[in-house]
Write a structure and sequence with these properties.
Low-confidence stretches: none
Oligomer: single chain
Radius of gyration: 22 Å
Helix content: 25-40%
Number of strands: 12
CATH superfamily of the largest domain: NAD(P)-binding Rossmann-like Domain
Order of helices and strands: EHEHEHEHEHHEHEEEHEHEEH
Strand order of the largest sheet: 8-7-6-9-10-11-12
Distance between the termini: 29 Å
Strand content: 5-15%
Mean pLDDT: 95
CATH architecture of the largest domain: 3-Layer(aba) Sandwich
Shape: elongated
């Protein structure tokens, strides 16, 4: 450790980070995974979000002396959360940092499936003038949003503008148009859209399986902007091939990247968008930097941090 708290951070963003930091901290950057692993044990604060090198995954493992680790990630399956908990480390995540961006993307998915924009684009590529492939109307339709937090409620607010009747799912219901985690399965047949926005935890793994797909309204549209692990993909492919599920818009899959030979690519009426929802923006570092600076001020003052991961819940 140094006299000043040492922050270890990807070098490509170092100039931007240094511009907002107080003089009471020291920051060192890394450009390769090897540099990251050499610096990580010295860090009191680690922000290892360099994705191409794998430092986002390996840095936290090597940061044995860190008191606080920060990430822009919301899904934490790649991070050693059990090890962090055993070390007594604080982990802050990107949860709720860009709910508007992801919510916009999810609603784009709903509109795409309603009007089958994917088929329109393919017709364009073939230079084929055709009749409308999708004529579903949003007005008066019903959507179930599973995971009605910052992102889920943002999706709901946007869908309501189109005249969609939205029902949200939280751990506990009781509010108008909000139902609990034990109620939604019995109501699946009511909804034209089922949208997944829940975190990936032991409770939500394979949340949508063969039984849930069979219970959905014939022709329903499934949208997943959460994590691929929430869906039993074999059951999803079977339902799409059978024609029971109308269509699927999948921003996330298992695994990622999805191998070219995977049968999900060939499932009918399915659009896979390569986990782009959170990347469809230009303000990520600005938002992340502002959040980090606020938390750093809390940290230096000995105050509780914001957006701290609850290891027992997994988010």
């Amino acid at each position: 450790m140094t006299d000043k708290p040492l922050i270890v951070f990807p070098a490509q963003y170092l100039a931007q980070l240094q511009a907002i930091l107080p003089d009471s901290v020291e920051v060192r950057g890394f450009s390769t995974l090897e540099e990251c692993l050499a610096l990580a044990p010295q860090a009191e604060i680690g922000w290892f979000d360099d994705f191409p090198s794998g430092a986002y995954r390996e840095g936290p493992r090597a940061a044995a002396n860190a008191k606080w680790i920060n990430t822009v990630l919301t899904g934490l399956d790649a991070l050693p959360t059990t090890l962090m908990q055993e070390r007594g480390q604080i982990l802050t995540s990107g949860a709720g940092m860009m709910p508007d961006i992801v919510a916009d993307y999810a609603v784009m998915g709903a509109l795409t499936l309603a009007k089958r924009l994917d088929e329109v684009v393919r017709a364009h590529d073939r230079k084929e003038w055709r009749r409308p492939p999708g004529t579903f109307e949003m007005l008066g339709s019903k959507a179930l949003v599973i995971g009605y937090g910052a992102i889920g409620s943002g999706i709901g607010d946007r869908l309501k503008v189109f005249g969609v009747e939205v029902t949200g799912v939280r751990r506990r219901g009781g509010e108008p148009s909000i139902i609990g985690a034990d109620e939604w399965r019995a109501r699946l047949a009511e909804f034209d859209f089922v949208i997944l926005a829940a975190p990936s935890t032991s409770d939500t793994k394979l949340l949508i399986g063969a039984d849930e797909l069979a219970a959905m309204k014939p022709g329903a549209r499934l949208i997943n902007i959460a994590r691929g692990e929430l869906i039993d993909q074999e059951a999803l492919i079977a339902s799409l091939n059978a024609g029971h599920l109308g269509s699927a818009f999948l921003d996330v899959t298992t695994p990622e990247p999805l191998p070219p030979e995977h049968p999900l690519w060939d499932a009918p009426n399915t659009l896979i968008t390569m986990h782009l929802s959170g990347q469809s923006q230009t303000t990520a570092f600005k938002r992340a930097g502002a959040r980090f600076l606020k938390n750093l001020q809390h940290y230096l003052a000995g105050e509780p941090l914001e957006h701290v991961v609850d290891f027992s819940r997994g988010y």
